[in-house]
Amino acid sequence: MLERFLKTDTSETLYVQRALLGAVMLPHGAQKLLGWFGGYGFSGTMNYFTGTMHIPSVLAFLVIVSESVGSLGLLFGLGTRLAAFGAAATMVGAVLTTHLKVGFFMNWFGNQPGEGLEYHLLALALALPLVARGGGAFSLDRRLFDALVRRRVLSREQALRTRLAAHDLADHTY
Questions:
Q1: What are the residue ranges spanned by the domains of the chain?
Q2: DSSP codes, the chain
Q3: Mean pLDDT in each 10-residue stretch from start to end of the chain (174 residues)?
């Protein structure tokens, strides 16, 4: 199961998607978790999500973790599938709770009541292939997968050698 979660190929396209999604999500996570870039920090964001938007506290917490810790996971390619799933779920949630009613376009000229959903669609387009295929080249997931496979192969080889040695010993015992 863990190997399936970590498995990825050496796709440089997935690497670029992963790095871009992580880089775009990180400042949003820093706003929500740390209060950087004009954000409210953890307490303020939790209060806004739960009090104003009436989002359950568990979901509010997961959004903050997804955008902050998950974006770091994406940048390093560690837990890529989970981090990309979190980003995708956050984008779907943002569209359904806030941005769908505004329309498609971002609020470039300040003449809309909020931001549209085009950014969220682009983030989904980056996240979904990562959920399906993993983090690609230069990911820690790939290194962990390779290490797990090597360990499993060595364990099987050791077990085979042990059985063969036991069999040889049994053959020579009279």
A1: 2-171
A2: -HHHHH-----HHHHHHHHHHHHHHHHHHHHHHH-GGG--HHHHHHHIIIIIS---HHHHHHHHHHHHHHHHHHHHTSSHHHHHHHHHHHHHHHIIIIITTT-SS--TTS-SSS--SHHHHHHHHHHHHHHHH---TT-HHHHHHHHHHHHHHHHHHHHHHHHHHHHHHHHT--
A3: 89 98 98 98 98 97 98 98 98 95 91 93 98 97 92 84 77 62
